[in-house]
Each structure stands twice: as C-alpha cells, then as structure tokens.
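Listing S7. Sequence submitted for prediction.
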Amino acid sequence: MSDVNHQEESFFSHLIELRDRLIRALTAIGVVFIPLAFYARELYAVLAAPLLATLPAGGQMIATDVVGVFLVPMKVALMVAFLIALPYVLYQVWAFVAPGLYVHEKKVAIPMVAASVVLFFIGMAFAYFAFFPMVFGFMAQFAPEGVAWMTDIEKYLSFVLTMFLAFGITFEVPIIVIVLVKLGLVSVEKLREWRSYVIVGAFVVAAVFTPPDVISQFMMAIPLWLLYELGIVLAAWTAKPVTAGASDYQPPSDAEMEQELDRAEAQSSSEPKP
C-alpha cells in the first residue's frame, strides 16, 4: 500500500508541477502581449507589407467581418508575443522534462532544441522576405484587367500562418535527419538511396501547401531538398549511428584481465579459511 500511495503522490506532484509550468509559460506570453496589443495595428501592417507592396494602384485589403478589424491585429500581436516568449516557454518545457533524462540525452537534446528553434525562425524569415514578395508579385502580374484584387485580412492572416508553419517545418528537415540517424532508425547510406524519392516527395508537399503556381512549388521544394542534403552531410559528420543489437560494451584488454585475476587471487588468499 505504501508503494501505491507513493506512486499516487508522485503522479499528482508531476501534475502540479506541469500546471505550474503551464501557468508560468502563459503568464510570460500574457506579459509580452499586453504592451504589444497597443501596437497591434502597426504589427499587422508589417505582416501585410509584402502583399501591400504588390497590390496595384488603388488596391487595398478589406475586412468582411464586423469585428475582424479588431481581432485580426490582436491575433498578430498574440503570435508575436508567443514568438518573443518562446525561449522562456521552451525553458519551462525543458525544466519539466529534464529530470527524467539521462546525462547523455541532455547533452544531445539541448543543442537539438536550440537548433530547431533557430531553423524554424529562419524558415519564417525565408517565407516573409523571399517567398511572399515573389508569390504576390507573380499573382499581381496575372490579375485580369478590370478586376480589383483585394484580400480579406482574416484570409490573409490564415494564409500567412500556414506558410510560416510550412516553411518553419521545412527548415527542420536537417534536425529530423540527424535524429533519425542518431536513433539508429535509418543509416546515412539509406538516406542517400532515398534521394530520388525525397525530391519527388518535396514537390508533392509543395503542391499541397503552396498556391497552385510553379514558382511557389519550386520555392518550397528546392529548399526542402537542399536541406535534406544538408541533413545527410551533418548526420554523416556528427551523428553516430546505432546498429541493431549493438551496445557500448567493449571487452577488457589482456592487461586489464591480468589485473583483475591478480586482484581476485589476492582477495581469495587474504580471506580466512574454515
């Protein structure tokens, strides 16, 4: 009964700690969000700048919802607050998970998480500075004459968030490749053999998540393929694959065996005989 009670206490203590970590993370996001809320309009203007720069003369964005002009900028401010508070949020996650990890797992997890965050931000930056201007400029050139090209702010925000998420995950490919090799789930040689399939899959993924034009698909598929190649290079350089049935055990050398035998004989000779 004592073991059962101890397990229940441990379970509830973990739940309490998880609740406290979540409260701290949400509080941090809220603290950052409050001042940003006063600049929600300016933040949305920055987010919409790639589209506004390509709209024809007299073009503008519209709001078809009554409260959209208020909610959409607030959503943008909340998104920015989350990104700013993300290091602290990840710290809370790490503080909750770290006690259950081994030392070698902690050494691997810390740089992997840091690199994942950096690559995700790089993917978002690539979408904002390279993908959006190219795609919106392409769309503006193909707009029929006499058609007013105006976009609802809610739909634009949804499109932007989808692209941010898609490119952010795309730029995580090197980390995914390294983790797969480190866990022994796949070898570097096998990844090289899959290169042709990955290229086809990259264009399929790009066709699903990007607008139906060739430029958008190439701007996602080509980075995805190149990042896959980068992951292979980094995995071959840093990751140590674990083969099936392999272990860290190494047989002792002859000198170590002789030392152990001498120590055992000395110990047996020093023991009192019956």
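Caption to Listing S7: primary sequence and predicted structure tokens for the chain studied. The radius of gyration is 28 Å. The chain is about 75% helix and 0% strand.
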